[in-house]
């Protein structure tokens, strides 16, 4: 059982939320806490940066925070067990930095099936696994 779990959430992949959160709840110590993390990558791309005014960026992050809370509620994550975090930047870097900051004892994340391009540049999950200072659970979305 883990006492401090970092769970990465991608807001667009709704079908992944139940699996990643139910797994986190299964391995969470009764006295443990989890952090739901969404990484806003909008500003990492130079072509998007000029288009995203500071006010728009703050509103985007505020909306993302509300979506994280709705996801937690929908998947029956007790509010007293969870905190929510929005970070901006490159996903794998932000996940690793947040795991260090909160002293996570594990990271739980979803991953897609690798394609040809992943053999050359790698995936977010691969980069997190390679550099994390804690255990990492990588779940795949399975077809029914």
From TrEMBL:
Domain UspA: residue ranges: 1-140
InterPro entries, alphabetized: Rossmann-like_a/b/a_fold, UspA
Superkingdom, natural source: Bacteria
Pfam families according to UniProt: Usp
Recorded family membership: Belongs to the universal stress protein A family.
Protein name: Universal stress protein
The organism's taxonomic lineage, starting at the top: Bacteria, Pseudomonadati, Campylobacterota, Epsilonproteobacteria, Campylobacterales
